[in-house]
Amino acid sequence: MDLGLRDKNVMITASSQGIGFSTAESFLKEGANVLLNGRNEEKLKHSYKILCDKYGSGHVACFTGDITVADTISQCRSYIEDTWGRLDVLVPNLGSGIPICEDKLDIKEWETLINVNLLPAVKVIREFTEILSLSDNGSIILISSIVAYERMRAPYAYAAAKNAIRTLSKYLAGDLAERSVRVNCVVPGNIMFEGGRWEELYNNDKEGTEAYINREVPLKRFGRPEEIADAIVFLASERARFITGAELVIDGGQKRS
Ligand SMILES: NC(=O)c1ccc[n+]([C@@H]2O[C@H](COP(=O)([O-])OP(=O)(O)OC[C@H]3O[C@@H](n4cnc5c(N)ncnc54)[C@H](OP(=O)(O)O)[C@@H]3O)[C@@H](O)[C@H]2O)c1
Prior knowledge:
Order of helices and strands: EHEHEHEHHEHEHHHE
Bound molecules: NADP nicotinamide-adenine-dinucleotide phosphate
Structural class: alpha/beta
């Protein structure tokens, strides 16, 4: 199936590892151009080099900076305008469910997790909508989590922020349709990869983590980042031109509701 993504320009925030990095690779396989982002320059350059070696340096770019900061976001927009002129796909991927304390109602934890999981998505969408509108099939794919739907072992603030991401996706889809920008949301379950949160939890408690996965996930395994990436690529593609305001759950059957 030709996804029609050749030479499309794709920006993925927080993409030097994990789901963001796999998403970059899946777009590159389709012939798109990708802009990677992360704070740690060395780590970002390492990921950039891996992708340049595989797909050619003409298709990959990278922008170092903290994407929670307004100035960084506007510099990133200028960089995209200077490099590509327009944007076709935006994936506001930054997010983290790592708690900072035991108290689920700790205000500092709420501020931190809302600042990482919700506000950066709002800020990048606000900044990039104009250059996305220049595309004939502009697309935003937001990243929620199954913790948004029902009570799981997640910080309350993370679950609430990921629920707000679903709401943001639905509302934006209605409003941005007139600018030919589609907005969809992917909802991952437990995704394991090297250097990720689940790897850390697994290494700390192998038996407990395996028991949890076997009990809670009908397909009895972790998801892989490529499995989220492929769904994102499909939603951004020509084949999904009539899909907007949708949520795609990719969790091995874990979500019950
Ligand atoms: N993994 C899962 O099981 C899972 C499940 C459901 C939903 N999700 C969601 O999927 C998305 C990706 O998750 P992931 O597990 O792949 O993430 P991850 O492994 O925590 O991703 C970390 C990436 O984000 C970058 N990063 C962190 N803070 C940044 C900042 N302020 N500005 C720019 N880059 C930043 C990191 O590079 P630097 O440290 O160098 O900045 C790194 O490239 C998130 O929205 C997450 O909530 C994940």
